Amino acid sequence: VYNAQHESLAKEWAKGFTKETGIKVTLRNGGDSDFSNQIVAEGAASPADVFLTENSPAMALVEAAGLFTPVDADTLAQVPQEYQPSSGKWVGVAARSTVFAYNKDKLKEGQLPKSLLDLADPSWKGRWAASPSGADFQAIVSAMLELKGEAATSDWLKAMKENFTAYKGNNTVMKAVNAGEIDGGVIYHYYYFGDQAKTGENSKNVGLHYFKNQDPGAFVSISGGGVLASSKHPKEAQAFLKWVTGKAGQEVLKTGTSYEYAVGKDAMSNPKLVPLADLQAPNIDPTHLNSKKVIDLMTQAGLL
Questions:
Q1: Residue 137's pLDDT band (cuts 50, 70, 90)
Q2: Residue 82 belongs to what domain range?
Q3: Shared-domain flag, residues 173 and 207
């Protein structure tokens, strides 16, 4: 398994699957972008049987290269339509929500941006942060591209360059917000919940603002799982995906420490999270999320 998901989560999945089936799982850990490009470069010679990601664009890249085999119908049936691509070439295994993390001393409810697009306004200059080099933020931009088109996304990225402060990693963004170095930042929800579950030291002054209203900033990124067409163990690989998306695999998301959303039918997420159904996320077919185009646009805007 080429695993770009949280290492601890993938280990739990592998352990549970092996315990139930006796099938041994070898995890190779890395990042979304690195692994997706590596799989494309390896082509039919890839040693991977399964690819697990944190975000959809990495799955879309491998799918566009024609390297996935369709996921078994029984597995797809375990996950609602909105958490899988229309192609059936891979399946959602978890999800994460975009949020605006803000310093509660610096911003009050009425001062929060109503839309992610509002952060392009000059009034936000020097007041917000993000981690543009990460696959997480690039996935959020890919959703904007799909929803608003190239011209609007390009304009927003250029305004972002003028207005925002770059940090390396979502956690660093949250720490800066918590310390009052910056008013707010665009991250994924689980960084906050993960810190709160530990000591809360890096999030005690942080509030989370959910954009909702199908806004690009309400984007829910689907973490994917797919079986490589070149897999030498296709039966076992399909069985692994079926287990991960089934009751036992999704239960790991509810009880574990990743604080990502469960996506299986009737699966419950951690009760501390705002329910997935309440996030009013925009409806996007994850197959269409274009990471190459996003990197081009972000590079042109001087963000990469």
A1: very high
A2: 2-94+219-274
A3: yes
